[in-house]
Amino acid sequence: MPQLPGLAWPLTRSTVAGSTRVFTAASGAVAAAQLWSAPVYEWELTYDGLDSLAAFPGLMIHSKQLLEGFFLSVGGRGQPFLFNDVSDNYQAGSALGIGDGTTTTFAARRNVASFSEPVDAIANVSAVYLNGVAQAGSALNVSAPNGTDANSITFTTAPSAGAVVTMDFWYFFKVRFTDDRLSFQQIMNGLWQLSGVKFRRERV
Q1: What is the CA radius of gyration of the chain?
Q2: What is the rounded distance in angstroms from the CA atom of residue 141 to the CA atom of residue 20?
């Protein structure tokens, strides 16, 4: 999804922890069953300014066409896409696991305090460490298991047993628009606004 300078504040992001079924017994005791293995995040964006006539270069030339073209290219709700949330797109020293001398592939993980989950897609890896020692790029590669978006790294040689695997990297969220319609509002010649651009994370 294109990053455009006309994006307005506030940017709304909702965190949905899970789909939970709560049961209350006749005694009043409560039990809960969480049905999702990963949370869902929802975003809503507003654009205060989009340019359609190359008349407002500060808004990026033809930014309206860029955004509209992207929306059409994924068919609205038709296809998922990768979103760079600039407020949540980097992990430093993320713990990926402990080597056992056999395992070569480790999933990249996003950590929020004590909570940890696999990322949807790796954008760029800046460093990988074994016991705090940076590894040469030739020792590993970013892989995409089963044809999915690249979300793990694979070592050419398995880390030794007990080796702590950590990584510094940037990542994307895999999302999908929640509507098949965008409603642009023209406020003057060549200048447009757009609100209610909503999409949500695809659970993996």
Answers
A1: 21
A2: 38
pLDDT of residue 79 exceeding 70, the answer is: yes
Percent residues over pLDDT 90 in the chain: 76
pLDDT at 55: 95
Residue with the two structure tokens 């709304």: 12
pTM (predicted TM-score):
0.88
Alpha carbon distance 97, 95 (integer Å): 6
Q: What secondary structure, in 3-state letters, does the chain show?
A: CCCCCCECCCCEEEEECCCEEEEECCCCCEEEEECCCCCEEEEEEEEEEEECCCCCHHHCCCHHHHHHHHHHHCCHHHCCEEECCCCCCEEEEEEEEECCCCCCEEECEEEECCEEEECCEEEEEEEEEECCEECCHHHEEEECHHHCCCCEEEECCCCCCCCEEEEEEEEEEEEEECCCCCCEEEEECCEEEEEEEEEEECCC
Other C-beta atoms closer than 10 Å to the C-beta of 182 total 15
pLDDT bracket for residue 145 (50, 70, 90): low
CA distance 199 to 68: 15
Domain map (residue ranges) of the chain:
12-75+180-201, 90-174
**Amino acid present at 173:** F
